[in-house]
Every structure is written in structure tokens, then in C-alpha cells.
Write a structure and sequence with these properties.
With 260 residues, the chain is α/β, with parallel strands linked by helices. The chain contains 10 helices and 8 strands. It is 37% helix and 24% strand. α3 (60-69) links the parallel β1 (49-54) and β2.
């Protein structure tokens, strides 16, 4: 998770709760396995990879991907798009050794000029952009011929975390203010972009304590959590309680956008 450009939300106060989520899910592992599998026939053809990561956050997920994909530093050019200045600086430090070239870091697409990229990645970020089609059109325009765009998001049909959003905002009598994989798929189709969609299975598993039940709802709801309240957030997990733990099985949506 990261602040997206022109984000619907600010996440700086919620990093601790998001870190709890990261520590208790295999979401990144399972999605990165899918990313690497999707690139298995493409990466060996590349003499170098100019990579743009949209919504880098601390750089943890991108670092994991570079390691798993075996992208050598001398064949990798990294550009990080992350609007949160502290997270952006942390990501540059974290990823400096992953490229022999200086790592470029920007706050939004407007700072990229006319650069193009062989590979664009985005891991669970596009929920929060204000103008999804504009961001997606900009990314497509920056994708080089024979380029690939890999996007992981959760959708309403297969994700309990997205279901929480709809249940919680329904309880408040409000529309969900954030996007999901269904909106991304619709935007791809409106723009006529070629894509393949796959499902990625994952799970969330944490000790069932009163405090833990509140942590994921806090980062999901952000500033709206106060209106929701602890009692609702804690009770929502009850169907997933198993022998002193909360265990949630769900699936992400993985999109592969190809510019041939």
C-alpha cells in the first residue's frame, strides 16, 4: 500500500497497521510468484529492463520482486513513483543496490517527461487514485513496444477485504470511496487495452485478540474508521475465527497488459 498520486486517502498515520497486515498475509509472495511466471518467456529476451514501479511505498515488494525475478543490477534501470516523500526516500535507499544506475524517484507521472519503460508494475495501489483512466492511459503511453504492465488488485467477488469495505460503508450508509479490481478491468476495456486476467490465491492469518481485530479495519477505513467504531470492526471478523486465530482465504486479481 502507498499513497497514490492525487490519492483519495493519506496513509502516513496508518503505516503501523498496514505493517501488521503485511506481516500476516502471503499476499505479496503469491502475487510475485504470479508476476515471475507471467514474465518467464519475456525476461530472457531483454538485454536490460527499464522498470517503473507505480506506488512503491517503502520498496519492500519491489525489492522482493527484483530478487525473485533474478533481475541483475547491471541490467536494471529503476524508476519509482511514490508521492509520500518519506516513503520515497526510504525506497531509494532500500533499492540503491538493485541497479548500477542511479535510482530515479518521482512523486507523479508528470515528472517522468517522455520516458518509456519496458516493464511497469503496481502492487495493490490503484484503489486510491482519483482519475483511474488518466493514470492508466498515462502508464500505457509510457509502455515501450513489447512492454508489459503487471497490476495486482483485489476485486469484490473474491476478496474478503473488499467485502469489508462494502459491508462497512454500507453500515455507514455511504458509497465506498475507493476503487477495486472491477473498476480497473472496466477502465482497461473502456480504453481498449489488451490484457489477460488471472486469479491469485492467498490468505490472511493472525492471532485472534481484541486489538488485532481492529488493525486491518483501521488501515482499510482510514479517516472513516472513527465513524465505524471498534465494535463493528471486531464483530466483522467473527465468521473467520478458528481456534484462537483469524484465518481468511481469498483471491486477488492479476492483470497482464501487453503492448506488442
Amino acid at each position: 500500500m502507498a499513497d497514490a498520486p492525487d490519492s483519495r486517502r493519506t496513509f502516513a498515520p496508518l503505516w503501523d497497521d498496514y505493517a501488521f497486515f503485511e506481516a500476516h498475509t502471503d499476499e505479496a509472495d503469491r502475487n510475485l510468484e504470479a508476476w515471475c511466471a507471467a514474465l518467464a518467456g519475456w525476461l530472457p529476451r531483454r538485454e536490460r529492463v527499464r522498470l517503473l514501479d507505480f506506488g512503491t511505498g517503502s520498496g519492500r515488494v519491489l525489492e522482493m520482486f527484483l530478487q525473485r525475478a533474478g533481475l541483475a543490477p547491471d541490467k536494471t534501470e529503476l524508476t519509482l513513483l511514490e508521492p509520500d516523500a518519506a516513503q520515497r526516500a526510504a525506497a531509494v535507499r532500500r533499492l540503491a543496490s538493485r541497479s548500477t544506475r542511479p535510482v530515479t524517484a518521482v512523486a507523479g507521472q508528470g515528472a517522468l517527461d517522455e520516458r518509456t519503460f519496458d516493464l511497469i508494475t503496481s502492487h495493490h495501489v490503484l484503489y486510491y487514485v482519483r482519475d483511474l483512466e488518466a493514470e492508466l492511459r498515462g502508464l500505457w503511453d509510457r509502455l515501450a513496444p513489447d512492454g508489459r504492465m503487471l497490476v495486482s488488485l483485489a476485486g469484490r467477488a473474491r476478496s474478503q477485504t473488499i467485502k469489508f469495505w462494502y459491508d462497512a460503508y454500507g453500515h455507514l450508509g455511504r458509497e465506498v470511496p475507493c476503487l477495486n479490481a472491477d473498476h480497473f478491468q472496466a477502465a482497461l476495456e473502456r480504453l481498449g487495452l489488451p490484457y489477460e486476467q488471472r486469479q491469485v490465491s492467498l490468505h490472511i492469518d493472525f492471532e485472534d485478540t481484541p486489538a488485532n481485530r481492529l488493525r486491518i479495519p483501521r488501515f482499510l477505513m482510514g479517516e472513516d474508521y472513527a465513524a465505524l467504531g471498534d465494535a463493528y470492526a471486531a464483530a466483522w471478523w467473527e465468521p473467520h475465527a478458528r481456534d484462537g486465530r483469524i484465518v481468511v482465504e481469498e483471491q486477488d486479481e492479476f492483470f497482464i497488459v501487453t503492448k506488442d
